[in-house]
Write a structure and sequence with these properties.
Blueprint lengths: L6 E5 L4 E6 L2 E10 L3 E9 L8 H16 L3 E4 L2 H9 L18
Parallel strand pairs: 4-5
Antiparallel strand pairs: 1-2, 2-3, 3-4
Length: about 100
């Protein structure tokens, strides 16, 4: 459980979602935007706030925003976002499915 008041907001001008505590950015999740896809590339949390729910707050807010605001799918290249989705299965439907390769070795 968190012991800090975390505010998360979308910062589209910086292509990221940001978490703030007392007005200061303490974490963010960066993305690349495509027509039908949002690719999460990197999540970072200030070491002083690790383990306080900042990363989870960012992931939940960002994924809820994608789900509620568009028809886009998510490609979680960021290991944190990918792992978070794996632990919160209600978000799996947002993930872009890539068909298996038909290439032969």
């Amino acid at each position: 459980m968190t012991d800090v008041d975390i505010e998360v907001a979308h910062a589209p001008e910086r292509l990221r979602y940001e978490a703030r505590v007392d007005g200061s950015v303490v974490g963010f999740a960066e993305y690349i935007l495509a027509t039908d896809l949002i690719v999460f590339t990197h999540t970072e949390v200030d070491p002083a706030y690790e383990g306080k729910g900042v990363g989870s707050a960012i992931a939940r807010f960002a994924l809820d925003d994608v789900r509620d605001g568009s028809e886009r799918k998510v490609m979680p290249l960021c290991p944190f976002i990918k792992g978070w989705i794996g632990n919160h299965r209600e978000y799996v439907a947002l993930v872009k499915r890539v068909p298996p390769s038909t290439a032969k070795d």
